[in-house]
Every structure is written in structure tokens, then in C-alpha cells.
Request: fold
Amino acid sequence: IMAQNTDRQVSGRIQSMDGPVTGASIILKGTAIWASSDDDGFFTFPQTLKQNDILVITSLGYYDKEVVIKGDTSHIEPFLEDVEVVVVGAMRTSASKPKGGSEN
Reply:
């Protein structure tokens, strides 16, 4: 039996440990065709997809995720993992004045 390579509409919901991911970008790899997730993490891709197409899901603060469309895929629910963020800062107080300079 030959597998059919039929195009299909794909929709889904993007989630993380914190719940739905709002404003995630869902991009058909190698193209400029994309969709964005709504306030509840839901999206519907604007173009029909076929087997072996790859959707790349990106959102600030999360690792990118690639999802390969399989023969019967019409709904996906990718889970994005948080990126560990380290914040480094410096502070200068008013008592810190450069040495050796003139004050005019």
C-alpha cells in the first residue's frame, strides 16, 4: 500500500511549564510562511502542510522546537522548555568618583 502524501490543515496549542505560550511564532522551515499563537496558545497554520514538512516554534524565553509533520498530523501540542536566564549587573554609587580627575 502506498502512503498518500495529502496536504492538510494543521492547528495546535503551544504550551510550557507556565501554561499556554502567547505570541509564539510557528514558521514553516525554509520559508517566510508563519503563524502566531493567541492568548490561549492556540494557532491554525495559514497554509496546508504535507508529510515531512517541519514547523519551527520559537518564543522569547524558550528553546526553539521543531515538529515534523507526519502522515496523519493535523493537530500538534508542542511543549516549550524555559531558557535559563542569568542576570548580571553592576552598580555605581554617588560616592564613586574617578581618581585623579578635575572637578569643574
Observations:
- The mean pLDDT is 89.
